[in-house]
Amino acid sequence: MQKSCLECGEKIVGRADKKFCSDYCRNAYNNKLNKDNKNLVRNINNRLRKNYRILEELNPQNKSKTTKSTLLTKGFNFEYITSIYTTKKGTVYYFVYNQGYLPLENDYFALVKKLD
């Protein structure tokens, strides 16, 4: 039984479980397969990276304080976080990877870094 490339339809020579005739066809096939979700995932990852850079810049000593207006001026988007941590006392920290923030009174935020 002769197998053909999933991308271009050319005859495949080689291993019995081979699906593509070349790396080019394999890459083209997988790029087409993943195309639909790429923009959404890329945009979310870019947003998370930007939030992370902002928190990292404002929190060089692993613990600091800033205002909501400072975060917003730098382009921080509060809708994009990677995790939430609630302490035993019920305090809720929001994290973008290992950089986090805690909403305080009067639009202030405590910035923290999770140390592993």
Summarize the structure.
By secondary structure, this protein is of the alpha+beta class. The chain contains 2 helices and 5 strands; from the N terminus they run H-E-H-E-E-E-E. It has helices at 23-58, 68-73; strands at 63-67, 83-86, 92-96, 99-103, 108-113.
Explain what this protein looks like in three dimensions:
The chain has helices at residues 23-58, 68-73, and strands spanning 63-67, 83-86, 92-96, 99-103, 108-113. It has a domain at 37-113. The protein is built from two helices and five strands. The chain has 116 residues and is of the alpha+beta class. The protein is elongated and about 70 Å long. The model has no long low-confidence stretch (mean pLDDT 93). Strands 1-5-4-3-2 form a five-stranded antiparallel β-sheet.
Overall mean confidence score, pLDDT: 93
Q: Give the H and E element order.
A: HEHEEEE
- Helix segment tally: 2
User: Which overall shape is indicated by the principal axes computed on the Cα atoms?
Assistant: elongated
- Number of beta-strand segments: 5
Q: Roughly what fraction of the amino acids lie in strands?
A: 15-25%
Question: How widely separated are the two ends?
Answer: 55 Å
Output the radius of gyration.
23 Å
Largest sheet: 5 strands, antiparallel
Oligomer category:
single chain
**Coarse structural class:** alpha+beta
What helical percentage do the residues reach?
A: 25-40%
Strand order of the biggest β-sheet: 1-5-4-3-2
Poorly predicted spans: none
Q: What is the strand and helix layout of this fold?
A:
Elements: H1 23-58, E1 63-67, H2 68-73, E2 83-86, E3 92-96, E4 99-103, E5 108-113
Antiparallel strand pairs: 1-5, 2-3, 3-4, 4-5
